[in-house]
Amino acid sequence: MDKKILSDYFAGRLSSEKEDTVRRFLLEHAEDENVSSMLEEIYESSSNEMDETALEGMYSTISRRLHLNPSAEKSSSALSDGKVWKKVYFAVAAAAVAAFLSLPLAFRAGERQVEKERDAVSWIEKTVPVGTVDSLLLADGSMIYLEGGTHIIYPSAFYGNERKVFVSGEIFAEVAKDPSRPFIVNAGEISVRVLGTTFNLKAYDAISCIEAVLLEGSINLELTTPSGEQTARMKPGSIAQYDRKTGQLTMSEFDRSAFSALKKGRGLYYNNISMQDIATDLSRVFGKKIVVADEKLAQTRYFAIFTNNESLDNILSAINSDGRMDISERDDTIYLNSK
Q1: Rounded Cα–Cα distance for residues 60 and 228 (Å)
Q2: Which of 118, 129, 230, 301 could form an SS bridge with 223, CB 3.0 to 4.6 Å?
Q3: How far lies 54's CA from each of 101, 145, 147, 272, in Å?
Q4: Is the pTM for the entire model greater than 0.90?
């Protein structure tokens, strides 16, 4: 087994299929001399970023979850000389812990991070109810604005060489500058890596298009697609859209002043978005069921900006300014059809 694959496994960078392969390998070969040597190197690398309390906390958490329940004497000796911990418990326990993870993709890596650092820092989960907006100030001074239906996992304090949060939904982030520690937003298939910048990320599970909009600074996008890993560097005024269905990543430009005004007014911004995704988004915002009744209309793309607290009826009328869409309502559900 390659050392890089093992490192990627413990860092949560592998697909679920590859994780299963590595897990089985570790459970069978954790005590092999060559494997133990690689695991010691990985352990030493991670231990440089975690103090003794955090390492003991990691060990205790893993032991509790696996019901290893070693005797006090054995546990003490394992932690004091490090050999048993490095060669057996670190490999086998951490491998088996991964088998317990069953959260959606956007939070599997977050749950693993929580398990590793729980005794060193408190991790907080926050969900914003549909139809509302919220905000939070992170420990590093970064300001995060959250749209309705957003779920975020973030630490009470940042330590180590990076600042990481986990998101499903939409956020507008004003990231505090810290050149020594990049700020990473993990949202399932996509990770956004920045040092200090202002950007918007929209990554709802129910919408096929993941969208990143950069206003200030620069960000790196790291994507996990069916065809492999992709990376892209964004500059201010650019918008990146990743289609989950096709695996295609596209880049375009936008008016930064319009988007800044939009965020202050908590409006809606659709840049070449399919009617299906727009309908799903409007259903979330207004709490109204909207059905796009035919596939041609569902795949039709639109450009639209709404910043004046427009009603749902006004928004749909504006999108239908060309008169090509039939809008009707029955049983508290809005139906959209092509004419």
Answers
A1: 36
A2: 230
A3: 21, 30, 33, 46
A4: no
